[in-house]
Each structure stands twice: as structure tokens, then as C-alpha cells.
Design a protein that fits this description.
Helix content: under 10%
Number of domains: 1
Shape: globular
CATH architecture: Beta Barrel
Number of strands: 37
CATH superfamily: TonB-dependent receptor, beta-barrel domain
Largest sheet: 22 strands, antiparallel, barrel
Structural class: mainly beta
């Protein structure tokens, strides 16, 4: 925080003496995902961080997961299959990342089987992102399920921002290649178009050593090949995105598919067998109508079709006497759903804003199958379902005084085939004691509905009606803005989680899901962000969190007490070159077996060459610059307590705009 003076040009007391024109130079960003309408972040009923397209490029972020790993209080985990996100110390090993809501331009991305979302190469190309809004805390008061401890709203670039064609190619370590072709334009007849296609391929690490599978030192019956998984880490992703806007009507289409080899031999599969793979495909078509009836009344209607498919192949040894020594178990999942939403936003007396809306989601298919690829085919799981969800919400932003704002919202959701209904409120009292200073007192609840995977894939020994998980969150946040483009923030929070859906083991080695656990956590976050007059951009943060598993009376697993981040972008050569330095420190965490991981510090470095002739831009990035050996926590399906990550690696990127 000591570097703030290099960026701040006026103190809080000095701000109070500034003229209106000078106050206008205090730059405060806007956010649209916190309340479902655009507002200054100082008026949002949440603690908000915004990461822009320039920041993504300056620091060489390749995936949404890498973008989020740079943000205060957030951390990721990677099991060599998927990337998972932890928010404020909450990320249980083995969870399918269903307690945060991801939106693309306000469209819900969590699918209807596992409630999961992709943060790796299987989601929107980061080259199409204009900004990412990170909204901390519970937001079920406007979004319903999965807006549990955070919402991530990805705002895409518009056709007018491209204003022509864009070709981007990448080459990196482990045989990684990527190509993207995009075109965008705002035409004179008010039609705005953006289309894009991306292909990504990687051979992955050719040899990965896992001591748990080294037969020379391990008694694991699956141990072999001296613990080395060879040529079992490849990845292949294809992505399409298109948007057409004409006046009040916007039609968006999205599709992404990803194949990934899994080298970890998860779920007791054969080690060093390249047949263990997963496939995920996610698509939607969204039609949105926005109408400004009057300057004080805005109406929005939305209709969408969504789909999700998952396939997994898991090789196992056959029983003695079988025709083949091995066989493959195949998982096949299909989700399809329709959604309708209507919303009205009204401004009264120029200072009060009210929002009301309703939505319905009809799950056409929530189908799960599991069978062995042998003849005759015998299904271990064959579950086909449909369901319906209704939701209605209202929110008011009321100016109690010139310096005091009350934001209060409430949503009711009803599940026709499950637990019934749930109410979830959110309240924020926002106070500006002096110009440039904002204090927020925040309270909210949120829920996560039990999903079909938890309810039906592993049947319990006796009938159980799973209840929704519930979180209660309290936060006090202070934001101090300085003249120019700098700010400092402090947040103190506490949350408790009830009825957490957890795995319950059975004697035969199987398990089922039930509402079991109670968690709580307390933490503090500090952050400074600033831009100097010469263009230097600094964002640095520290987060301390302490979480408790009250059922087992122990520290929460995969919950780091300490997180520290630094991102520094420095323009050079008269703004033709930008050097981006990124540091990420993560403290030790408890594994699911009770051991502790080592803490680690990662250093990433990116050079970005701008304004070259012919619309060319070049960049070069080195990740894990000092080749730090580190790993993330494994889950119960892994033999590994920690899963080793990539050492030093690089990427070269060229972008041509025309």
C-alpha cells in the first residue's frame, strides 16, 4: 500500500475542496452485473472488481481462469482436467465449481446437470472479452441458484470495437497452438455484427511424474511405468461466437467444445492409459429485446435455448477370465433447457431506481447415463428427467440522503420437482462521508439447489430429499478514490454455510450425497490500484481468511489463509511496448486427507509490442518464470494429495487487425 503516493494526486481532504470539474476527473468504473442494470461500482450492493481487455492482454492471460487468478481474494485449482475457482477461501476438493454464477453478457452459463461452468479453454475466447465483472458475495436476490458466493459477468466486445477483421495466432510450450478469426462492424443502417471462430490444440506435458504411481516406492496396485504418465495430457477446443444487434433487438449464439485427456488416473482408473478423456460441449442462442420506453423506464425481455453435453471415458481392469484385460466405462450426459425472462427498471425523482422481474426455466432434458463399453451393454445409470423453475425478484435503490443510499432486494424461486421454494434477500447501506470515500455495509443470503447429479447419479440407501445449500454473508467495505485514476479498498467479511451437500461413503466403497456440513469463514482483503500520469498501472492486494469446518472441528480444506497478488504494467518506448509483471502468492492449504501443501509464489512476465505497421501487434509471455515446483490439492477421486502443475512455459502471440 506504500506505493499509493506515486499514483494518487489528491488526498480525501483535498478531494472535498475540489471543484465539480476536478471531481469529474475521479474515475469510477461502472458495473452491470451486480444489480442487472448499469451503475457505478460505488453504488453496487457488492464488493466489485473489474478486469479490462487491456489488462488481460498486458498480463498474457490465456484463459478465464488465469484472468480470475489475478484478482484479490480469488484463487484457482487445476486437477489436469478442469480449472476450479475459489472465492474467499471456499473451494472444496472434488466440487464441480457450482457455487459461483458465470454470465456472458448477462446470459447464465451454469449448465443444468452439474451446475458447472468452464474456466479453461472450453469457454469464450479471452480475445473477445471487453471486461470481466467480479461481484463478490451472495447474489441470489437477483439471480437465483448458484449465485452463492460470487457472480462473474463477462462482457463481450462489440462489433464497433473491432471495426473490421482480426486474426490472432499463438504458439506455446507443449505443442500449444491457437488461431482466432473475428470480424465486427457497426453499419450505417444501425446493424451491428460480430462473428468469431477459435481453434486451440495442445499436446500437453509429454511425461508427468506421480510418486503415488511409482511401483518402486508405492504399494498402490495401479502403480506402473515408474510413476510416469506419458502422452496423456492433450487438449483440443473449438469455439464459435456471434452477435447481431439491430436497434433494440440482439441475437447471440455461442458454442464451445473441448476434449481433454486426463493423466491423473482419477476414479481408480488404469494409470498411464491415454483412453481416460472428458468431453464438454456448451451452446446457446439468446434473443434479447431492450426498450427505453422513456428516459425513466427501461424494459427488457429475454428468450434463450441452451444445451450441454458431457462424455467421459474411464479405463478399468477387467475381472479375471474376461475376454479383454481392460474395459472402458462411459459416461454420457445431455442437458437442454429453455428460459424466458422479463424485467422492468424505473427511475423515480431522478435518484431512486426500482427493478422488478420474473423468469422461468424449463429443463427439457436432464439425462445421465453410465455404462461399460462391452456387449451386452448394461447401464449402471440411466436417468432421464425434466423439471421447471420459476423465479420472481424485486430490488430498490433508494437515496435516503444526498450521501446515503439503501439498496434492498428479494427473490423467490420455486422448484416444481424438488424442495419447493426459497426466499433470498440482499441489503446494502452505502454511505459517502466525503467526496471520494464510500463505505458499504452489506448483508445477503444465497442458495444453491441440489442438482441432478447429486440427486440421481448415486442413489442413497434410503429415500432422501436434498435441501438447498444456504449461505449468510456479512461485509463491511471501504473504498477510497483519489483524483485521477487510483483507489484503495478494505473489506472485512464473515459468512456461514449451512446444509452443505457432501459425499457420504458407503461400506462397499461407493457413496451418495446428503446435507451434512456447516462451514464458516472470516476474512479481510486489502487492495490498491492506480495509474500514473505516465501510464504505469499497478494493482496489488492481500487477503487473509480463516475458515472452519464445524462438523469435523477442523480447518476448511483447500482454503488458503494468505493470498497476495501484484500486477504491474509499464509502458516503454513511447507507449509502443508494454511490460507486464504478475506475482501470485498462495499460502499453504489443508488437503482432504489432513496434510498440508507447500506455499508458493508464481511469477509471470509479458511483453506486448503495439502500434506496428499494418495493424500488427505482437506479444511474448513467460509463465512460472522461475520454474517453481508447486501443486494444487487433489480430491477424493485422486490418489494424489497434490497434483503437480506446469513448470516454466511460454507463449508467442501475433494479432493482425485490418
Amino acid at each position: 500500500m506504500g506505493g499509493a503516493s506515486a499514483f494518487a494526486t489528491a488526498s480525501s481532504d483535498e478531494l472535498a475542496e475540489l471543484s465539480l470539474e476536478q471531481l469529474m476527473s475521479v474515475k469510477i468504473a461502472s458495473v452491470s452485473g451486480a444489480s442487472k442494470f448499469e451503475q457505478k461500482v460505488t453504488r453496487a450492493p457488492s464488493s466489485v472488481t473489474i478486469v479490462t481487455a487491456d489488462e488481460i492482454a498486458n498480463f498474457g492471460h490465456r484463459t478465464l481462469g488465469e484472468v480470475l487468478a489475478s484478482v484479490r481474494g480469488l484463487y484457482v485449482s487445476n486437477d489436469s482436467n478442469y480449472i476450479y475457482l475459489g472465492i474467499r477461501g471456499f473451494l472444496r476438493p472434488g466440487d464441480y465449481d457450482s457455487r459461483k454464477l458465470v454470465l456472458i453478457d448477462g446470459h447464465r452459463m451454469n449448465e443444468n446437470i452439474f451446475d458447472s461452468t468452464e474456466l479453461s479453454q472450453g469457454t469464450l475466447d479471452v480475445g473477445l472479452i471487453d471486461r470481466v465483472e467480479i461481484i463478490r458475495g451472495p447474489s441470489s436476490s437477483v439471480y437465483g441458484s448458484s449465485a452463492f458466493n460470487g457472480v462473474l459477468n463477462i462482457v463481450t466486445r462489440r462489433g464497433r470495437q473491432l471495426d473490421g477483421g482480426e486474426i490472432s495466432t499463438e504458439f506455446g510450450s507443449f505443442g500449444a497452438t491457437k488461431a482466432r478469426v473475428s470480424y465486427g462492424k457497426l453499419f450505417k443502417n444501425e446493424l451491428e455484427l460480430l462473428i468469431s471462430a477459435t481453434r486451440y490444440q495442445s499436446d500437453g506435458r509429454g511425461a508427468i511424474y506421480y510418486p503415488e504411481f511409482d511401483q518402486r516406492i508405492s504399494d498402490n496396485p495401479r502403480a506402473r511405468n515408474d510413476g510416469v504418465a506419458q502422452n496423456a495430457d492433450s487438449e483440443d477446443a473449438k469455439k464459435l461466437f456471434g452477435s447481431i444487434k439491430y436497434r433494440d433487438l440482439t441475437v447471440t449464439a455461442y458454442y464451445a467444445a473441448r476434449d481433454k485427456q486426463v493423466p491423473t488416473a482419477s476414479f481408480d482408473t488404469l494409470f498411464n492409459d491415454p483412453r481416460e478423456t472428458t468431453y464438454d460441449a456448451r451452446g446457446y442462442v439468446d434473443v434479447r429485446y431492450d426498450r427505453e420506453v422513456t428516459p425513466q423506464l427501461h424494459l427488457q425481455g429475454r428468450a434463450a435455448y441452451d444445451s450441454y453435453a458431457y462424455r467421459g471415458d474411464y479405463p478399468f481392469p477387467s475381472e479375471p477370465g474376461a475376454a479383454s484385460p481392460t474395459y472402458v466405462n462411459h459416461d454420457d450426459t445431455l442437458g437442454e433447457w429453455l428460459s424466458l425472462e422479463g424485467q422492468a427498471t424505473a427511475t423515480l425523482a431522478g435518484k431512486h431506481t426500482f427493478l422488478a422481474g420474473a423468469e422461468v426455466r424449463q429443463n427439457l432434458h436432464q439425462n445421465q447415463y453410465s455404462y461399460d463399453l462391452v456387449e451386452p451393454r448394461i447401464y449402471n445409470v440411466a436417468d432421464e428427467r425434466d423439471s421447471r423453475i420459476f423465479g420472481a425478484y424485486a430490488q430498490g435503490e433508494i437515496a435516503l440522503h444526498r450521501d446515503v443510499l439503501l439498496n434492498a432486494g428479494l427473490r423467490y424461486d420455486h422448484y416444481t420437482d424438488s424442495f419447493g421454494g426459497t426466499f433470498n434477500p440482499r441489503v446494502a447501506l452505502i454511505y459517502d462521508p466525503v467526496a471520494g470515500t464510500t463505505i458499504k455495509a452489506l448483508y445477503g443470503t444465497a442458495y444453491r439447489a441440489p442438482n441432478p447429479y447429486e440427486r440421481f447419479y448415486y442413489p442413497p440407501p434410503a429415500p432422501i430429499e436434498l435441501r438447498p445449500e444456504k449461505i449468510h454473508s456479512y461485509e463491511l467495505a471501504l473504498d477510497q478514490y483519489f483524483a485521477g485514476d487510483s483507489r484503495a479498498s478494505v473489506s472485512v467479511y464473515r459468512y456461514s454455510v449451512h446444509d452443505l451437500i457432501s459425499q457420504v461413503p458407503l461400506p462397499a466403497g461407493d457413496f451418495y450425497f446428503d446435507n451434512m456440513r456447516l462451514y464458516s469463514a472470516t476474512g479481510v482483503e486489502l487492495e490498491f490500484e492506480g495509474r500514473s500520469a505516465h501510464g504505469t498501472h499497478l494493482r496489488t492486494s492481500y487477503a487473509f481468511e480463516r475458515g472452519r469446518d464445524h462438523v469435523n472441528d477442523r480447518e476448511m480444506s483447500n482454503s488458503p489463509r494468505h493470498l497476495a497478488k501484484l500486477n504491474l504494467a509499464q509502458p516503454l518506448l513511447h507507449d509502443r511496448l508494454t511490460a507486464g509483471l504478475e506475482l501470485q502468492y498462495m499460502g499453504s492449504v489443508r488437503t482432504y486427507t489432513g496434510t498440508a501443501t507447500d506455499d508458493f509464489l508464481l511469477t509471470n512476465l509479458t511483453f506486448r509490442l503495439l502500434h506496428l505497421p499494418g495493424g500488427l501487434e505482437l506479444s511474448a509471455s513467460i509463465y512460472n518464470l522461475f520454474d517453481t515446483a508447486y501443486g494444487y490439492v487433489g480430491a477424493e477421486e485422486h490418489a494424489q494429495r497434490t497434483i503437480p502443475q506446469k513448470g516454466r512455459n511460454f507463449r508467442l502471440k501475433a494479432t493482425l487487425r485490418f
